[in-house]
Specification:
Layout: H1 3-23, H2 27-40, H3 43-80
């Protein structure tokens, strides 16, 4: 396993832990996960892991076209509220 693959796997793991802590409304676990990510892989890698998980969820539930449409709606709504 390359260093990049190892970092991506760790990002996925930490992203899943962060989402679980958020769903469970566990602020302590959220902070611990963020601290671990900051110390080990960095927050940009954690964001990449979260983004990958979100993309998988959207494509899995909405299909590729639906995922893109949903994200375009989110971008458009945000731009309208600037």
């Amino acid at each position: 396993m390359t260093n990049t693959e190892s970092t991506l796997n760790e990002a996925r793991r930490l992203a899943a832990l962060l989402v679980m802590a958020t769903v469970e409304n566990d602020a302590e676990a959220q902070q611990e996960t963020m601290d671990e990510a900051y110390a080990s892989i960095g927050l940009p890698a954690l964001v990449a892991g979260l983004t990958e998980g979100l993309a998988e969820l959207l494509v899995g539930t909405l299909g590729p076209e639906g995922a893109v449409a949903n994200l375009n709606m989110a971008v458009n709504a945000a731009e309208m509220n600037r």
